[in-house]
Design goal:
mainly alpha, Serine Threonine Protein Phosphatase 5, Tetratricopeptide repeat, Phage tail protein beta-alpha-beta fold, three-stranded antiparallel beta sheet, three-stranded mixed beta sheet
Length: 729
Amino acid sequence: MAIANPITEEQAGSPARVSSGWKVVLLISVVAAGLAIGALAGTIAFLVWPEVETKHAQAGEPTNTADPTESVSANETRGDEKLLEQDYAAALAFYRRVAEPQNASPLLRFRLAICQEGLGRWEQAQQLYSEIAHRHPDTVLAFACHMALARLCLRQGRVESAMRPIAQAILQANESAAQIGAALPQARLTFVATLLRSRLQIVPPEPLQPFLAWPPWQLEHPEETWFWLRGLGEAATRPWPVIRELVQVTPGTDSAEMVITLQWPQGSLLDLLHRLAKETGQEIAVSDKATASLATRSLQSLRLVNLPLSEVLLLLLEPEGCVWYCGDKKLHVLAAEEVSLETTHPGAESAGMPNQESVAVTQSYEQSLRQKLAKARLHSVLATLNRLLLENSSAPLPHLQRVFWLMGLCHYHLGQLKEAATWWDRLLHRWPQTVEAFYVSFNLGVLYWQQGELELAKRLWMRAADQAPGHPLTPLAYLYVARAELEDLHVESAIVPLRRATYAPPGSPTRCLAQLWLACCWLYLNNAPAAHNLLVRERRWLQAEPYRTGAAFLDALARTQGSETGSLRLRQAEDLLTALLQVQDWQMLEPLGPLLAGQAWVRLHLPEQAGRVYQSALPRARSLWREELLLAYAESCFLCRQFAQARQAVQESLRSSRPDHVAAAHWLLARCALREGNPEESLEHARQVLLHPSPVPREALLRLMGEAYLALGDSRRAAECFAGRIPDL
């Protein structure tokens, strides 16, 4: 019996269905193989492509450049476009397609140097600029290369090295060439600015001592020079006419003001100096070291037209490390290294002076020589700046405000503060929105503060802060305003600028000092909790040196003022004594710090220590702060029974314009006279106290008068004083 198959023919499927299934499997296999091949290709590209990108980046080439078969002019045009966009890497790639550096035209090589400078490759840029200037001397292009070399030095912070290429550009420039235009006056201005920055001792402003601030003049972008040369075209590489030797002198008010027109084809620097001295009617004295330094220096193709003799000497000598001054119709040239403390006065040894006396004479001679050299340099810079103003009166310089700034700076360092203020005031009125305007306001505040004109100083510092609220020096300006307020003892008025000064970066000297001075203000106003809370909040920064000891003293004083019970006061007094002994220098807490420290010493019954603190601060004190210090010092002398010192200390307060200070001085003199057994003199000073508005308590004054009347045997008037009534005088 046959068993039937449970799978029917329909369920098993026909041959057509089997063929369709195999097709699906084959299609899936093909798709999977394609995906695998794509993944493999992507992996290879991921591993290989970064190396290609790196090679392009190292070569300074853009990865999406145009077709290499593009025409030369098109590549040069696109390179210029990228250069103007400050895309130096792309511009360099396009320029290299035009020609290699060794085969490029002078103007193309100059653009290659600009690209290298823009990319921060200083050595490559310097090499290209130097080669171009050497191959194409006496051209506008050489002038531009020398100025570019100076710009490279300034970018790297080598201010001293920047003077030589600038001087070379000025000395060899043909002023009569129309292509130079305003570039030569601008180069002269750059030279004197670089000279002053190199030679003057520029100290950045500090919170404790206001100093002048120098504006951060931005260097021009490298491509800006190309804007000028592109308009000249091939004329930039055309040599200037050959010159012949010529020295013409136009007389002036003195030897330094003579005007020189000079053409010097070739010769040594020493020969040129002797020729200039001869033409100007002077003798010349060159030291041995200066002779050794200048003997190997040769000059060629010098072209100078109507320059002051002092400027010519600056251009010739300062880059060579030499200095000069004129005196008694004689030109003295020295090496800069000779001006040191080892220099001996010419007559010290021949006179047979003792060693110590010889050193003193040498130092005096050295100081006098330094002053002569500094004055000669500053007067030379002033002559150059005045000449620039006269020559460019019809067509002002692009940065004329810098001339005004430098004029004020020279007068300031010559001690001519009135002239310095005049030039800086002119700058403020003509260019109130420039970078220099902020620094002029800031520096005028410093100038007036040094002269003791605190109101003018505060007004100018506030103006500077209003001009640029986000400037890094603005918190420092507010700190200076607060210091001026505190020197006038306007303690409450100083709180607002001090709070604004605390917006300086955390941990900065300006912010830390502002917090300390603010705590001093709260303590001076008897607000100990506010001072304590402030010091606790800022203790992270005030625990560092050099603020730690001052902050510890202020905190101990705040806790002492805020204590109530006797045991707590005793413990806080011990902490206060420890904190006082830790502070070695009170200058950081001035003006109020020494006053608070003296009061703390008196509270601890140690007035002699208070006198030492007051005495150490008096040389730096002025205005009402000085008068307050003198009165406090006199009080400490009185407590130590040093009556003669107390009398001497209050003499200045007797001439004060403030009636309360005059009354306080008479009050102290009245007590001194009574202690010394002079009741009549004591009563005379007490009557003067009654004639002025006085902070002296009425009861204390009447008690002193009663004791004086008792000493004179006048019981009736003494009784009236002890009863609280003023007797008939």
